[in-house]
Model the fold of this input.
Amino acid sequence: MKPYEELAKAYEPKDVEKRWYEFWESEGLFSAQEKSGKPSYSIVIPPPNVTGMLHMGHALNATLQDILCRFHKLSGYNVLWMPGTDHAGIATQNVVERKLAAEGTDRHAVGREKFVERVWEWRKEYGGIIIKQLKRMGAMCDWPRERFTMDEGLSRAVRKVFVELYHHGLIYQGDYIINWCPRCRTALADLEVEHEPLAGHLYQITYPLAEGEGGLTVATTRPETMLGDTAVAVNPEDPRYSGFSGKRVKLPLTDRVIPVIADSYVDLSFGTGALKVTPAHDPNDFTLGQKHGLPSVKVIGDDGRMTEEAGAAYAGMDRFEARKKVVADLEALGLLQKIDKHEHAVGHCYRCKTIVEPNLSKQWFVRTKPLADLAIEAVRDGRTRIVPDTWNKTYFDWLENIRDWCISRQIWWGHRIPAWTCAACGQIIVEMEDPVKCPHCEGTELSQDTDVLDTWFSSALWPFSTMGWPDQTDLLHTFYPTSVLVTAFDILFFWVARMMMMGIWFLKDVPFRDVYIHALVRDAEGKKMSKSKGNVIDPLEVIDVQGTDAFRFTLAAFAAQGRDIKLSMERIEGFRHFINKLWNAARFALPHIHARPEAAAKKPASRSVLDRYILSRLSRVIAKVGPDIKEYRFNEAAGALYQFTWHEFCDWYLEAVKPILYQDCTDEEKDAAVNTLATVFQGVLTCLHPFTPFVTEELWQKLPQTEGSIMKASWPSSDDPETGIVADQEAEDTIALVVGVVTAVRNIRGEMNISPSAVLSASVRPSGEKDAAGLSRMAGMIKNLARLSELSVDGAAHRPKGSATAVFAGNEIFVSLSGVLDLAKETERLQKEIGKLDKDLSKTSAKLNNEDFLAKAPEEVRQKVVAQQEELAEKRDKLTATLDRIKEIQAVQ
Done:
């Protein structure tokens, strides 16, 4: 039997969290079994970048996954939560390149091999920071299975996927327009480009006809690209340009002549209706160029500077400097007709924020349409469910309009593309093993492609590569498909859709049964958190101040489907008070449970209506919380637990049971109360554990009737006659009467400014025989909780003189105020307070009616005054209602 240890007066999370997390890890309580008779439940963690630090998105994501995993473990499942990190090609290379720059060198100076070694060294020293931070969140990941996208096993999976897709004709190499970052010197996928509205200009430029008078005027936002124009296009339906198709124009600032072509693609309403066509620097122009057989002239190089093909006057200039010179030169020639201000969306690199340049380049692509069709079908037929389903349309729209995926990156950190070119015959060789000679001509001079694969290529294999594929492992057999993917909406396409495509293609089954898309964590005003706004809340600072459990419970309590979370330190502090409430409940309960350990473990012969009530309420909560967690209604589950724990268990049950535990009751009554107290407290800890793992483990260990970790406990049943956790409507109805009458008396005390310690007398006129019996039976409890010296229950009772009244469910309650309250003095006090409030309201109203104030005051100042006025008005209404009540009491004296 565990000895009783008195709890500290306040819960101090720091030492508790460290101690229990180390215990869970050392005991292997996070470990999944590769073979088990239990049902399987699995989640793969969205792998944070190896460069990452814990932010609010990570904190929310980890909390929700941990709730699901701990709940299912308590529910008897064999749970795998697969952890790991992503090598984050561009981001990690940038970090190490900055370190090299600080040393006065760069990657080209140290060479590819040495540079990659430096990256691995950096990863070894700093790459595990976010893993340690996830542990502080309480994440029950199976850490010995931690994977990294550049691990040997995952690299083998990447190679197999590339080779198979290549030989199926789904990976190919070609010259296409891609998104190019001149800073990172690499191609970017469409999804890696962030479009931001920028204030720019629309330039109208005249291209003179090569034969005869006149010309065509085009409109462009990027005049520097005109040096690479190979045609001007007009819409054949445009009457302004009838007869122009087939003619030629002189390309200004060059010695070239280019054709005028007709194509219905041209938008008649944009600019002048004549479109300059630059196939090497615009994706739509590239398509037009292919359609009309136009050449591509690349005038902006990979470094963001103008090429020799731009002409001697511009070669070597930065693209934006070249823009200024082109505009000046056109103006000097009289060909610049007009410049209008024009805001348009401009693509930026998602890593370094440099403006992206659409550029013609030879790259590797995945032909995505066949893969996307499979991913669409899987959601349509229900094999994978997206929650909330409002995201289905977005998912379908993107996949139905998908473009081929550019997977090559011109960096050194990542999975190098396993393709070799034979110098002798020019053939490309793609096989699982590095070739030593060409299978086509037996040549031995082979060179491997210098590019690496897009980071998302390896991440797309995460649900099965982490489980040992391409080997058919027990882990893969047991846990694939995974149960759910918990993720943010912003990587629905980056990652989720690509995992769907790869999982279905290679394993012939979806990678996860559910995709739960959680919301965004915003600041208290609903604004997106950003360092520039100064409104970022650091999760680690929150944990240091408020504790992990309070932080986790806050996130869960506000994680409503489809609604962003408005987070503030005040809200987190509020839930810290909840953790302390639980702690104080334990400080009360544990001495009584330890005093009667046999009773705590033995089912009593009978229970009081109070005991049956709290067990019934626990039954209802268990019946709600389990399904809520399963269906990702985290806020509803947290709300139900909060309401039950704080209000029903702590505020009502613990207060009501005190007379039984402290006063002269029979041993049988005390034993029954202790058993109920122990049963309910154990149930509360178990249900709260997925949300608040640390404090629940600490308190679980203090109970005499528990063994081992709470992580080995079983989720309680909502219908268990053996423990007494069963629904009992009669007991609930009876205690509801008690609560109603006590609350009515307490409200009268509050409204009349009567001290909580003052002893009152009251009478009740019940609504019927059933309530009369219940109130009579529970009169002792009502008197104790409401601090009443007398309580009469009488169907013929009349309102006594000088009494305040209240009604609950048809039962009339009369509280005598004679000798307790001087109604005249109370009237005078209320009138003074109302007068003061009227003056304050007059001041706020004057401000809000002052047009000068409304025009000049900042929005936050105006809102503060509005809130102040609303608060004052609410106080005045309450005081006025109390004054009216006193007048009504005086009228019946």
In short: The chain is about 45% helix and 15% strand. The CA atoms of residues 344 and 470 lie 46 Å apart. The mean pLDDT is 93. The two ends are 63 Å apart (CA to CA).
